Amino acid sequence: MNSTTKATTQQLPIELSQSLESDLNELRQRTLSKVGEEDAAYIRRIIRIERWSGIFGRISMVLGFIHPMYWVFGVLALAFSKILNNMEVGHNVMHGQYDWMNDPNINSRSFDWDNAGDSDSWRHYHNYEHHTYTNIIGKDRDFGYGLLRLSNDLPWRIKNTFQVFIYMLLSLLFEWGVAYHELAGDRVFSKKKNNRKKRLSAHDLKRAFFSKAGRQIFKDYIFFPLISGPMFLPVLLGNFLANLIRNLWTSTIIFCGHFTEDIHTFSQEQCNNETKGQWYHRQMLGSSNIEGRKWFHILTGHLSCQIEHHLFPDIPAHRYTQMAPEVQAIAKKHGIPYNTGRFSRQYFTVLKRIIKYSFPQSATKPKEPLTASN
């Protein structure tokens, strides 16, 4: 079943939710018991690769005056570094997956990543809002990012006709969309006179946004081009292209994990008094996986295992590929769909969803609510 009607997905019956909770908790504890030096060595190795790739990339772009291929290799190396920094390092470290190491630099409290988004703002709306209220319409602001209509839960507006182009623009400027997300959300909630307790004032949010964005612009588009001397313009262009490649990659992977054709949406009423097992159930229905080789999973920050990430956001992500077969078996045991597929298939269904909901949908006959027997 896909999200063609509003609020057709029922909570998992209490008996099955208890069984699901027990099975997934057991898997979580068994995996956590293995976490240790192997995981610390892994993330430190990835960070070394990320940093040296960035250094090589920036130096190689400057050497472009010798031969243009040095510049090309430099752009690709810098893009590779930025992808690792954002996906396998930044995203996972800021989820607290490595806080147990007590490392002064590799921890969720102080880590700052290489993009325009303020880390503290991201930790709030992503770690708390998105992961707590995944796909709950009106509470999960990541569903469509406030720009795209991706289900019948939202009314159609004329602007939705052009949302394929909006999606393309969002993908190209994804770091800036993410950076502005918290600030835009505060403005929207303020207009609606929402009574939610604010984490920061509008002034503090603006200051955080412009401070981090300013530092990022200075680093990539002023400082490094300036110190390159006569290679100012090639380095400026190279930094722009590296950011563009990173934005396209991260946007595509994130959309494949959240907005494939068969993911489910939920109403706030459905999720009242939700048990942990029912929360697990919602995470599984609201996420999609992408199949691939080891290098592919690393480049996605293991968000190719989005189902496992939504179930266990604080477990070191490189263990998700080990957990995935067991999660799939648990899903099958409880009659829960496990959405996984090749990258090309998953991305095709993302585009299909974006296009489908760019047109007004007439009310459809509600489908039978999903239960373990469907």
Automatic annotation (TrEMBL):
The chain crosses the membrane at residues 55-80, 164-183, 221-242. It comes from the Bacteria. Keywords: Membrane, Transmembrane, Transmembrane helix. InterPro entries: FA_desaturase_dom, Fatty_acid_desaturase. Pfam families: FA_desaturase (PF00487). Residues 70-340 form the Fatty acid desaturase domain. This is Acyl-CoA desaturase.
